[in-house]
Specification:
mainly beta; 6-stranded parallel β-sheet; single chain; 9-stranded parallel β-sheet
Length: about 130
């Protein structure tokens, strides 16, 4: 991979069957049948993702059938998500469709961590955009 590239684009005419791992930002307009792991994800309105999404930052506006885990997550009004959503900071536009559970990443980490004395954790933020 070239060190000059700051993002990768998967065009609307592209279908990928398999997992996608990117160390850079990813823009998806096509269809992905597999899990996505990247630094930052921007999903186009016509895009379809059938798999889990893991990213530091994600901006979703298409269809997703799978869980989403992101520190900063924006779900736009055109998004249709079927799966659980894990976040640190969450913004949802009015009109977005989500069929799944919402849980802050702190709760997810606490459920998988061994039981010890409670530690101070940053508060998760939820913002509803209109």
């Amino acid at each position: 991979m070239s060190g000059n590239s700051t993002f990768s684009v998967i065009g609307s005419d592209v279908t990928i069957k398999g997992d996608v791992h990117a160390s850079v930002d990813l823009h998806v307009d096509g269809k992905i049948e597999g899990d996505i792991q990247c630094a930052s994800l921007v999903q186009g309105e016509a895009s379809v993702i059938n798999g889990a999404v893991t990213a530091e930052r994600a901006r979703m506006s298409g269809k997703v059938a799978g869980s989403i885990t992101a520190k900063e997550l924006v779900i736009l009004k055109t998004a249709q998500i079927e799966g659980d959503v894990h976040y640190d900071a969450l913004t949802i536009e009015q009109g977005a469709q989500v069929d799944g559970r919402f849980a802050p990443n702190t709760q997810r980490k606490a459920a998988t961590a061994p039981q010890t004395a409670p530690a101070a954790t940053p508060e998760s933020k939820l913002q509803i955009a209109s």
